Amino acid sequence: MSGERGAVSGERGAVSGERGAAPGDPSPERRGAVLDADLRVSRGTFTARARLCLAGGDVLALLGPNGAGKSTLLAALAGLLLPDDGHIRLDGADLTRVTAAPDDARGRGPHVLTQVPPSGRGVGLLSQDPMLFPHLSALANVAFGPRAQGVTARTATAQAALWLERVGLDGLGDRRPAELSGGQQQRVAIARALAAAPRLLLLDEPFASLDVDTAPAVRRMLRDQLRASGTTAVVVTHDVLDAVVLADQTAVLVDGEIVDEGPTARVLVAPRSPFTASIAGVNLVLGTADDGALVTADGLRFAGAHPQGAGRAEKPDGARVSLPDGAPVAAVFRPAAVIVGLHRPEGASPRNVWPATITSLEHGPNGIRVQTTEPAVAADLTAGAVAELGLAEGTPVWLSVKATEVALHAR
């Protein structure tokens, strides 16, 4: 079967390199591998750099805009692309180890110390296209990985039937891909990948081709299967919901560099980059600490609370917090917390107040999203409020947000 397309990890979405396994609670020997990757990899003039460390069974979401380098890093992890420099290790064993060529190498390229081929890595690659074998039934597609690893036909078929049941396709095993819907095909692809028990599973935008009605169910099912099998995984996506549902850890890649990383809740509650803030749906203002507050480069001052836990304020009254003067700080607050007016607000409650100019009006989650500049901040208003205030592009306004709504984070 080794000649069939898809038998190699990273090709056509199938997996090889480990013995197939039936679904169920992971045994210690099936627990996902520890990933340690530190690499620099180029495609043409573009270069991506990353350090990724995952404990066995952890799931990492790799977020970023199109062209950020996410798929480039995934290809290197799968063994489909040779890095310029660095290493990739699973459970301490080198899959890739490359050193940059010395200055006198005369353009010979990187010096390859170790490069295990895709078929020998025990690494699976699941793309957004299911890429099932069209001439095989769903059952045979799922059984293919275990069969390629030497599992008997009877055992592999029994395992495949169990995996199809786990992904909600019981009774559809005799159907070929053309007889299945797009969502059903993706479920088969997920079952096929997990049936081969990869040490590391790589998922490249696995839900991008699914419709809005199918994607949530497939996403939840994949989460359950990753947890049940104890599979270490890296999920490349531009959708923050994938990170929320699937991932223990999140890394944000922009222009080939990781700009934010850590536990998923921390990254989304306390973003450190504008892109992370945009996908988390919050405003982010950057500056430096001054007497417990944030001061922007333009001298705008933000008072706030130091968060404790998942976004809860340690000092709900907005009192000053202990931040070393001059330290890089980020202020985070929701667009719904921003108050927009035509005049400077008056009142005794503690507020952060500043003048701004409207740059655009867009559809928002609950009405109209008003985008402003100096600094770039979004405010969510009802359509009636926008009409009553007569807001339009170029309108000068005053913005305010209570200090209790602002979380200050060290960067």
Automatic annotation (TrEMBL):
Record flagged with keyword Nucleotide-binding: yes
Annotated region (Disordered), positions in chain: 1-33
Keyword tags: ATP-binding, Molybdenum, Nucleotide-binding, Transport
Residue stretches making up the ABC transporter domain: 29-280
Annotated ranges, domain Mop: 347-410
Species this protein is from: Sanguibacter gelidistatuariae
GO MF annotations, alphabetized: ATP binding; ATP hydrolysis activity
GO biological process, alphabetically ordered: molybdate ion transport
Protein name according to UniProt: Molybdate transport system ATP-binding protein
Alphabetized Pfam families for the sequence: ABC_tran, TOBE
